[in-house]
Amino acid sequence: MKLLKLHIESGDQSGGILDDFSINFHRPEKSNKNIDPICFVGVNGSGKSQVLQVIAEIFYYLDRHFCKFHPSKVDTNLVFEIEYLIQHNSQAKHVRIKRIAPKKNIKISILQNDQEVPVSDTDDIEELLPRKIIGYTSGGNETLSVPFLTLQRYLYKFSDLSQALSPM
To answer: Less Cβ crowding at N or C end of the chain, within 10 Å?
Structure first.
C-alpha cells in the first residue's frame, strides 16, 4: 500500500488538534516501483505521532468493520477521507475511502480515469484493504498499538501458542 492523501475533517483525537487537517503523501502518477519513504520530522508536540495514530485508527476501524474472521462493528467518531494505491489482481488500484459524518456509512470507491467507481461488495472491499499495517514511533510513545490490542488478544485465543500455554 502506498498512502496518497489523508484528510481529517473532525474527531476527538488529540483534543481536536487534527480537525480539518490534510496531508498529501504522494502523487498517484508517481511510479509505484521506486522506494519513496515518508518521514515526519518536527519538534516534540507538533503532531507527528497523532497523524500516525489516526491512520492506525482508520485502518483498525475499517478492518474490524469489513473483516470476515471476526467482524465487530467498532465505531469511531472520525470523519475522514483517505486515498492510497494498493496492488489488486496484479494491478495498482487507486482507492478512496470517505466517511462524511460520525455514525454514517463508509463510501469506498476506486478512481479510474478521473471517475469514482463505487465498491459495495464486502468481498471486493476486503481485497482493497491492506493486509498489514506497519508503523513506527520512537521514544516512549506507544499509542499506535492501542487499537490493535483487542485484536491481538482475539488472535492469540485461537493460536497454537495459546493452547500450549494453557493449564491442563
So the answer is: C
Distance CA 53, CA 136 (A): 10
For 17-56, where are the E strands, in sequence order?
21-24
The x, y and z cell numbers of residue 89, run together, are 489482481
Nearest alpha carbon to residue 151 among 51, 74, 77, 79: 74
Type of residue numbered 148: F
- Helical H segments across the chain, by residue range: 48-66, 122-128, 149-157, 160-165
Q: Which residues of 121-157 are buried (b: 16+ CB within 10 A; e: fewer)?
A: eeeebeebbbeeeeeeeeeeeeebeebbeebeeeeee
Grid cell 500450549 — which residue?
A: 164
Residue 125's alpha-carbon distances to 46, 49, 64, 93, 142, in angstroms, are 34, 28, 12, 12, 29
Q: pLDDT tens digits, residue range 7-39? A: 998 876 666 777 888 988 877 665 556 666 777
End-to-end CA distance of the chain: 43
CA 47 to mean position of chain CA atoms: 17
